[in-house]
Amino acid sequence: DAMVIQNPRYQVTQFGKPVTLSCSQTLNHNVMYWYQQKSSQAPKLLFHYYDKDFNNEADTPDNFQSRRPNTSFCFLDIRSPGLGDAAMYLCATSRDSLGSSYEQYFGPGTRLTVT
Amino acid sequence: AQSVAQPEDQVNVAEGNPLTVKCTYSVSGNPYLFWYVQYPNRGLQFLLKYITGDNLVKGSYGFEAEFNKSQTSFHLKKPSALVSDSALYFCAVRDIGTNAGKSTFGDGTTLTVKP
Known about the structure:
A: mainly beta; about 50% strand; globular; B: mainly beta; four-stranded antiparallel beta sheet; 12 strands
């Protein structure tokens, strides 16, 4: 039973052509995260939603934006993908409240290729 | 501020031998500590966590980790390695005092178990 679902698993886009990656969860977790991961490096946090509050990392390029229309869904929009944006994009969720244990649940990732 | 270090990029062990993957952390308050595993082209998978209580925590697939406050370490261990344990392992830390929902990940350690 998939708990964090990412679509598509593989995405090919052209240089400069906007692309949207989607994430959905069945865990009813209040926090959702987007990470970028390149070549078996540590996942790099782009931003996260704590409930409805959007938290952008200071070094996340303006080219990356996110939407969370409801608890279950979160989207990553890349407005003008460059070659350097080719990576695995990971969505994760966690329950973050008093008494929680805070571990993150990750989706399988979307591998983005920019041509 | 919170940080985590995984001093070894690679760990190689023979099947059946014990394994240790090292992790040290730094937080200003008390830590929540996590280990995740990542198989090729997959998202991260939660293995185990230390929140409070016993310093030795047990997790999935026979893994365990020992929290050592004086050495600020949380090393991952397994008594008898399997070839299927070969993967990329990430340690993560979260300062209990923060409520922003963020963990900091180490750079990862590639574990290779040889038959």
